[in-house]
Amino acid sequence: MSELHLKNALDTLKKTGVRITPQRHAILEYLIESMSHPTADDIYKALEHRFPNMSVATVYNNLRVFREAGLVRELTYGDNASRFDFVTSKHYHIICESCGKIVDFHYPGLDEVEHLAAHVTGFKVNSHRLEVYGICPECAKKENQTEE
Amino acid sequence: MSELHLKNALDTLKKTGVRITPQRHAILEYLIESMSHPTADDIYKALEHRFPNMSVATVYNNLRVFREAGLVRELTYGDNASRFDFVTSKHYHIICESCGKIVDFHYPGLDEVEHLAAHVTGFKVNSHRLEVYGICPECAKKENQTEE
DNA sequence: TTATTTATTTATAATCGTTATAATTAGTTT
DNA sequence: AAACTAATTATAACGATTATAAATAAATAA
Ligand SMILES: [Mn+2]
Ligand SMILES: [Mn+2]
Ligand SMILES: [Zn+2]
Ligand SMILES: [Zn+2]
User: Fold this and answer.
1) Domain containing B55 — which CATH number?
2) Can you give the residue range of the structural domain that contains B119?
3) Could you say which DSSP state residue B31 is in?
């Protein structure tokens, strides 16, 4: 499953003339296998034992390469560090306001919102961003325990 | 109209024991009357002729005070500076990917998405964030003119 | 009113994520 | 192998924001 994703991603990169370096391979592999939404620094820390000399700039550079190749989506959050999501199926995110955890969920596209927005504003619509915020089950449990 | 908004906002602040300083008054006034989504620096620049000694930290401090009082919403965009929106009616934003313009539009709440997300993830849902991205009419016109 | 307390502002330094730069290294092509 | 080019590294710079501490202004007490 994840091997196939990795193989396809490497093929995509090769096709656009991007060299497959050990660092690139490792970053992609980590993104796919971690199944999470790591920051650049998460990735850097996860790989530093295998690449003791790797620069954090390399992580950022390659995440940009992957993004431009359409392999990775960058999730931005104001002040906080961006998180990166290997692109598989289209999905949305729900985010815990207590611990920051990000969980995927699927929902049929919000075409109607895009159409209405285009209609009332005259914009040519390209995309939308939707996130749901709340408290994850684990944090909710903790809160109940601590509560008076 | 905007005078009433300002008056209500000042009342809200007074009720929570926040002093109404000339700087606070001016920042609030600007937020309400500009009818736009300025950055902290936009506000700072707009008021520097009236308050030549005002610090940019004062703008940030007060925007935080306003946000905590529920008067202002902060719109965050990754690397770029936050934009601030005086809270009136609930609405969404459509953002031009070419010039950065932000335009309001109204849409009935997306309760269904929140419910589904809560159901499939077990989260306690508090809110959501939706933005539509595209090209504004002005930028679209420019692009067509430049095109081959 | 004057003195005292407390909130706010100012000036400035620090922080943090990210990007730019330049030198070095590694991969590719001839 | 030599030459060329892409990628990595080390490090400095950047920009938005926050922290700090001193100065000032507002509110309250005397
Ligand atoms: Mn995801
Ligand atoms: Mn708005
Ligand atoms: Zn949580
Ligand atoms: Zn535009």
Assistant:
1) 1.10.10.10
2) 89-148
3) H
- The reply to whether A76 and A16 lie within a common domain is yes
Query: Which of A65, A88, A111 is the endpoint of a domain?
Result: A88
Pick the closest to residue B11 from B1, B20, B21 (CA basis). B20
- From A7's Cα to the closest Cα of chain B, the distance in A is 30
Q: What is the pLDDT of residues A48-104, one digit of tens each?
A: 999 999 999 999 999 999 999 999 999 998 888 999 999 989 999 999 998 899 999
Among A82, A121, A130, select the one facing B128 at the smallest CB separation: A130
**Å between B140 CA and D16 C1'?**
30
Residue-wise pLDDT for A12-33, tens only, equals 998 888 999 999 999 999 999 9
**A-chain residues near B106 (CB < 8 A):** 120
DSSP secondary structure code for residue A39 in this structure: B
Distance between B119 CA and the closest CA of chain A, angstroms: 10
Count of beta carbons in the 10 Å neighbourhood of residue B53: 7
User: Is pLDDT above 70 for B147?
Assistant: no
